[in-house]
Amino acid sequence: MAKASASFVCQSCGATTSKWSGRCEACGEWNSIVEEKPLSAGPAKKSLGAARGRSVALSDLSSTEAPPPRTASALSELDRVLGGGLVPGSAVLVGGDPGIGKSTLLLQAAAHFAQAGLGTIYVSGEEASAQVRMRAQRLGLDQAPVRLAAETNLRNILTTLEQEKPKLAIIDSIQTMWADNVDSAPGSVSQVRAAAHELTSFAKRHGTAVIMVGHVTKDGQIAGPRVVEHMVDTVLYFEGERGHQFRILRAVKNRFGPADEIGVFEMTGAGLAEVLNPSALFLSERGQPSPGSVVFSGIEGTRPLLVEFQALVAPTPHAQPRRSVVGWDGSRLAMILAVLEARCGIPFAGLDVYLNVAGGMKVSEPAADLAVAAALLSAREDAALPPETVVFGEISLSGALRPVAQAENRLKEARKLGFSSAILPSGGKAAAASGMTLTQMADLTAFVGDVFGAG
Ligand code: TYD
Ligand code: MG
């Protein structure tokens, strides 16, 4: 008889080892290895094929299934990110830094979904009911038919939900939940995983939509990381800079809608206000055209969004010049600096480079390459780009400019906001009918020569 020995499993990547260690060899995560006992300590079971199971009903791909009935709240930015409203029985995880506004967002969501007719229970594991009530008063939502509980014991919560049968349960936060059948501290990876698993399967069994709050660790992962993201249907991140009032709700995974969709909110004294025209908001701080500032016409999810890139290039007193980026990828910046140097002969050695996306927005599209290059050149040459101009295009390592998707939508949005000309790569489906003056270029050298008369 084989000895039923315990094994040690990394709760982050799932790697199994025979002994405990402080750091997972496979994924490098610290403190993620937990002892897991086999389910049954009895003699080794026969393989599954040896005993007959029950045969499972099969169906065709072609059988028609009605799309899930969705409930819309009055928060259209939230509905958009969810893929057009809340799907019954779906499990949603909302991650974000502490203090960013997750509880505020979900209390507003709870009130609006309750007013839209969904029976809603809000369970707070972090605050007392009185505190939640005070926040509801401040938000002017204290009349909404939301039922409150302050509880951390998962067994009690599940029993309550089973009795009350709400259509929506909000759990704030998953890190405070405590399952008494798992012996580790609340907030530990196994607790978070167990709680997320219980709540997700409850959602599926009862058709109750469950929204869970998850705090994010310093390196940007929801604590108890990947395992939770796999379990749920939808993962949303609530992000923003502390000093800014803008907050962005981003879908990073959605089984019921497009990923990468964003909703934009503004934190005000009376809670989160929706921003229905975010381009205007991100550009509102713009003054006169100035060197180093370039407007990029981007696409976030299904929606065009104009943001401003700001660059500062200054001689460095240090041997190793600084490369500092906020809101854009540092290695992508290094690549663009290298292409400018190698293909266009414009060196940045001996110069500090600072790049910033205005308004606390994060941009990850390669389509912003050309706007970044333009901002860097404009800062370096101390020459502003022509006013009312937007820029977009991808840069390849050869220095060629590649056309990007949805050029037409990008141009339309720019025009809507009062821009009259655009610099973009040649080729692709450029919309001549956009009513904008288009300057199309094949490579970065042409751009440098034409726009800055340098290179
Ligand atoms: P909160 O929702 O508690 O954040 P989280 O749940 O993500 O930790 O919100 C925290 C911040 O939001 C807090 O610093 C105060 C601010 N706030 C406002 O500015 N206006 C408001 O109406 C509310 C309720 C909060
Ligand atoms: Mg909170």
Would you give an account of this structure?
Helix content is 26%, strand content 25%. By secondary structure, it is an alpha/beta fold. The protein folds into three domains: 1-38; 76-275, Rossmann fold; 281-452, Ribosomal Protein S5, domain 2, CATH 3.30.230.10. Helix 5 packs parallel to helix 6 (225-231) and helix 8 crosses helix 9 (369-381). Magnesium ion (MG) is lined by residues 102-103, 126, 172.
**Major sheet strand order:** 6-5-7-8-4-9-10-11-12
* CATH topology term of the largest domain: Rossmann fold
- CATH class of the largest domain reads Alpha Beta
Structural class: alpha/beta
Globally, the shape reads globular
Number of helices: 11
Query: What level of helicity do the residues show?
Result: 25-40%
Q: Main beta sheet, described?
A: 9 strands, mixed
Into which percentage range does the β-strand content fall?
Answer: 15-25%
Oligomer: single chain
CATH superfamily of the largest domain: P-loop containing nucleotide triphosphate hydrolases
**Which cofactor or ligand species appear?**
thymidine-5'-diphosphate, magnesium ion
Would you report the number of β strands? 21
Please outline the helices and strands.
Blueprint: E1 7-10, E2 16-17, E3 33-36, H1 76-82, E4 91-96, H2 102-115, E5 120-124, H3 129-138, E6 146-150, H4 154-164, E7 168-172, H5 189-206, E8 209-215, H6 225-231, E9 234-239, E10 246-254, E11 262-268, E12 271-274, H7 278-283, E13 293-300, E14 303-315, E15 323-326, H8 330-344, E16 351-357, H9 369-381, E17 389-391, E18 394-395, E19 401-402, H10 407-416, E20 421-425, E21 437-441, H11 444-452
Parallel strand pairs: 4-8, 4-9, 5-6, 5-7, 7-8, 13-17, 15-16, 17-20, 20-21
Antiparallel strand pairs: 1-2, 1-3, 9-10, 10-11, 11-12, 13-14, 14-16, 18-19
Helix pairs in contact: 5-6, 8-9
Bound molecules: thymidine-5'-diphosphate (TYD) and magnesium ion.
